[in-house]
Amino acid sequence: MVLALLAAPGPAGLAVPAWSAAPALARQPGAAQPVPPQPIPPPPAPPARPPAAQEREAVVANELGLPLRELYIAPAGSVEQGPDRLGDDMLPTGAALRVPLGRQRLCLFDLRVVLADGSAEEKRGVDLCRNSRVTFGDPSAPLREATVVNDTDLAMRELYAMPSGAPGRGPDRLGAETVPPEATTRLRLGRARECVFDLTAVFEDDTVEERRRVDLCRQSRVTFGDPSIPWREAEIANGAGRAIRNLYAGTGPGGRPGTERPGAERPAGERPEGAGWGHDRLGPVMVEPGTTFRLRLRSRACQVDLRVVYDDETAEEKRAADLCAGAPILFDGSTIPRPPERAFTLVNRHGAPVQEVYASATDDTDWGEDRLSPAPLERGARAELVMRSACEIDLRIVFGNGGAEERRGVNICENALIVLRPGWVLAERLDQGAGALEQGPPREGSVRFRNNGPAPLVELYADPVGAPRGPDRLGSTVLGRGETLDFVPPEGVGCTGHLRAVFRDGREVDRPRFDLCSGTEVALP
């Protein structure tokens, strides 16, 4: 009976499981249950075919309020952004551009645009299969603009504007343009719902001014500079006989007029050595000899410090120049420390005439003019040359056949006599073989000083009568014991001047009304 419940005879004598013959019977407790057979899975589906490549395009609409100057479209996630689709063209605001992308299997693309002011916008993962039109900007947002006024005396070089609280300054809104002094520019920010912006201006002297939290919805005019600082003007006259290349003006701590901070003012004329002078006020302009330049700047004080640099790299300064006096401010080169005139004699002991002689300072980049012109230095002849320079010079002689000889670093203070003979460029002594030579009298309009003192003469001052002590006319030169120096009155001093000489042992010579054009030799002290 028990066996009948578990199994019943099946076809061909095989036992049939009870669950197959009587599925409704209940399971017996403790009895082993048979495992049903697993269904056979269907065969795998063939792999899906990739979508066929189709012509893709993007229609880019510009609603940013500013022209687009660059457009990039690349497959989503690409490292490279691809070529600029605009090339040399611009996409105006309110316009749309159809950009064909060729046959593509892809649908998702990254788009990036650069506006005319340098700012950029991006859209990533755009599905061009669903919608080929991509709009940058919100046409419902208002156009945001402002008038920026440069009320300073310097050109505005850079201008930045970003919504208040945004990180960084953003792009320079001026690009390659500048805003001249007392000029305005139109700042176009495109379509924006923000009203409050931070504006930053950078001027040509690298100073920076900021205007924080400016509400451009209520105030569309933004001024940089301080209108309370008055304008000062003066005529700068060039009487130096050489062109003025640079002009600097300074009263404030940084060298810029009108930049004085309360409690930090420094009166003009008290600028420490090496202090910055700020920006060149001439820009590309050159003030030629005999011409003038109108200097216009903002400054609370009438007195400013002025500095000019001539085209020969020499510089002249006027401390506490009064811009309110109404008189021209003359730069004549009279206060430039210049090396004294030095005379040396050449004797030609070569077998041929010397056609040309060139002598220049060791730091000059060219030889200058022929100092013999128009007559050559014949065989056995002598010639005295006079030049303003330090003691060491470079010397070059040229013969009629084009041959030349040079010697660098000749000390004409120690070698006032130079004999041009075969091998002179390497000779230890330059005065050998000259023969008898007597020193001639001082040149007309000059005076010859001879140091008869027990110590070298280290400083020499020659100034107009009644004027304060000016620059040392010897510079780095020292007039040794027994040595002579031919001295020509400096520009602006005249023949009668106040002479002061200082020796190394501290002794001083003071001659208030001295004839600097006597043409005689004067012993000092």
From TrEMBL:
Looking at the keywords, is Signal present?
Answer: yes
Q: Where is the composition biased (Pro residues)?
A: 34-50
Locate the compositionally biased regions of type Basic and acidic residues: 258-282
Its domain of life reads: Bacteria
Query: Where does the signal peptide begin and end?
Result: 1-20
Region called Disordered, residue ranges:
25-55, 247-283
> Which UniProt keywords are present, listed alphabetically?
Signal
- In Swiss-Prot or TrEMBL terms, this protein is called Uncharacterized protein
